[in-house]
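Propose amino acids for all 125 sites.
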C-alpha cells in the first residue's frame, strides 16, 4: 500500500475554482483531465454523474442556471488522509446572500479524484 498522500487542500480548491467556477468549457475540460481519473463518478444528492464530460456539463449548467456572478467559495482548508479529502464551501452571486452551503468529499486514487460526493447542507431556517 502506498504511503503517498496528495495535497488535498490544493486538489479540492483547484476542483472548486478550475472546474465548478470555470465558465469556459475548454478550460474546465483541461482542469478535469488534470484533476480527475479517466472514469470519475460524482454523486449529487439526486443524481449520479459518470465521466469527465458529464461532470463538466453539470458544472457548466450550474453556472449558467444561477447567473454570471454565481461562484463557489471555500470556507477553509481541505483536510484528508488515506485517500479521502473534504472541503467545505458556500455559493452565492457576487455581493448577494449565500445561496447554498455544503462540502465536497473526494476519494483520491493515484493523486486524482476518482469519486466526488457533493453534500448540501439543509437551508437555514
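Proposal:
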Amino acid at each position: 500500500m502506498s504511503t503517498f498522500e496528495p495535497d488535498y487542500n490544493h486538489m479540492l480548491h483547484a476542483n472548486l475554482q478550475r472546474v465548478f467556477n470555470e465558465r469556459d468549457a475548454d478550460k474546465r475540460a483541461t482542469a478535469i483531465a488534470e484533476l480527475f481519473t479517466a472514469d470519475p463518478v460524482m454523486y449529487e444528492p439526486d443524481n449520479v454523474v459518470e465521466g469527465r464530460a458529464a461532470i463538466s456539463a453539470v458544472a457548466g449548467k450550474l453556472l449558467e442556471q444561477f447567473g454570471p456572478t454565481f461562484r463557489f467559495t471555500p470556507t477553509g482548508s481541505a483536510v484528508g488522509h488515506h485517500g479521502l479529502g473534504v472541503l467545505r464551501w458556500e455559493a452565492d452571486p457576487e455581493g448577494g446572500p449565500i445561496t447554498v452551503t455544503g462540502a465536497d468529499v473526494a476519494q483520491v486514487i493515484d493523486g486524482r479524484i476518482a469519486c466526488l460526493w457533493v453534500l448540501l447542507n439543509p437551508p437555514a431556517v
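The chain has one domain: 8-120. The beta strands are 36-44, 47-50, 70-74, 79-81, 84-93, 100-109, 112-120.
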